[in-house]
Amino acid sequence: EETGKGRFEHYMLKEIYAQPEALRGTLSGRIDDGTVTLESFPEGTFEDVDQVHLVACGTSYHAALCAERQLVRAGIPASTTRASEYFDLQTVDERTLVVAVTQSGETADTLSALRRAAAAGGRTLAVTNVVGSTVSREADDVLYIRAGPEIGVAATKTFTSQVATLAMLTHRIAQGAERGTPREDAAAFFRELARLPDRIDELLAATAAETVSRQHIGRQSYFFIGRDFEYSVALEGALKFKEITYEHAEGFASGELKHGPLALVTEDATLFALLTGARGDETRKNAEEAKTRGATVVAVAPEGMEVGEVADEILRVPDTHPDLAGLLANVQLQLISYHTAYGLGREIDKPRNLAKSVTVE
Ligand code: G6P
C-alpha cells in the first residue's frame, strides 16, 4: 500500500492525509517528555558552532526559513539562502554549520551550494528524506526526516516533517553551542510537537477546505499573507497553489501589503490570511486593509479566535503551541490548493513544466 494511491485519487491527497503518520515517523524515538534525542548527534557535536547557514530550494527553502527564526531566537546567528543564490561565502569557516535542506537529496542547486560550502571550509549537514541520496553521501553529517516516500511533485508531508526535524535540530544546537540558549518553554513545545500528529488528524477529519475552495475558483489572483512563522507558510501556500492550479498566487509578509502589494488587490482577488501563531492578531489587521479594497478574505484561524467581520470564510485549526500552529494552517492551504486544482481539472500529481527533483542547475 505504501507506493499505491490506495483510496485516494491522487498521490498528493494521499500524502496530505499521510501527514500524521509521516510525522509520527519523524518524531519516533526522538522526543521523550520534552527532551530531544537525535541519533546521529552525541553530546558535544555542536559545541563549536558559531553560525548556521541554511541552503535549500522550493518548499524546502520555506522549511529552512522556519528553522532560521528558531535558531536566531535561540541565540544562534542563522541565515537562509536559496541554494542557487549561495555564493557569498566570505564568512564561512569550520565553525559555520551549513545545513542543506532537501527532500530528495538530489537537487542540483542544493548539491552545488553544499559543495561550495565544503570548499570554503564549512561543516556540512544534510537534512533529507532519502536514505543513500547524493546529499546524504556528500555531507559531513546527515539527519533524516523519515517521512516515507513522496510521489506527488508538489511537496506536502515532507514540509511538515522537515519543519519538525529542524525544530529538534535547532534545540540540540542551542543546547550544545556555546552561544546557544534553548527555548525556555522547551518541555511544553516538544510535548505539543509530539501531539501534533493527532491535531493534524483532527483537522483532516473536520476540514471545510473543499467547500471553501469551490467558492473561489476562477478569481484573478490569490494572495497569502502571514507574519512570523506564518510568513513562511504564506510563501509555501502560494507556491503550492501556483504549482498545481497554474493560477496567479503570491505570498507576502502581512506587514508588507501596504508597501506595494495592495496595489494588486481588487474585488477579483481572494486573500488567505493566516491568523494562527503569536502574531495572528496583527495579520488580522492587515487582512482588513485588503478587505477594504474589495478582496474576499479567507481566514485560517485557531479554534477559539474571534475573527470578526474581516473574514468571508474561516478555516479552523485545532489549538496547539503558537509556534506550531502554522504547520496546521499549512495543511488547510495544501487542501485548498488540491481542491482548487481538482476543480480546474489540472494534472495534480505531475504539474506541467515541473519535476519532483531538479537535477540540473
Ligand atoms: C522541485 C520540486 C519542489 C521542491 C524542490 C526542492 O522544484 O518541484 O516541490 O520543493 O524541487 O526539492 P528538494 O528535493 O531539494 O527538497
Properties at a glance:
single chain; 361 residues; alpha/beta; five-stranded parallel β-sheet; 11 helices; 17% strand; globular; binds 6-O-phosphono-alpha-D-glucopyranose
Brief synopsis:
With 361 residues, this protein is an alpha/beta fold. The chain contains eleven helices and twelve strands.
First and last CA, distance: 34 Å
Order of helices and strands: HHEEEHEEHEHEHHHEHEEHEEH
Strand content: 15-25%
Number of helices: 11
Bound molecules: 6-O-phosphono-alpha-D-glucopyranose
Average of the residue pLDDT scores:
96
Dominant shape = globular
Subcellular location: Cytoplasm
EC number: 2.6.1.16
GO cellular component, one term: cytoplasm
Keywords: Aminotransferase, Cytoplasm, Glutamine amidotransferase, Repeat, Transferase
Describe the structure.
Helices cover 40% and strands 17% of the residues. The chain is globular and about 55 Å long. Helix 2 packs antiparallel against helix 7. The protein has eleven helices and twelve strands. The strands form three sheets. It has a five-stranded parallel β-sheet with strand order 4-3-5-6-7, with helices on both faces. The two termini are 34 Å apart. Homodimer.
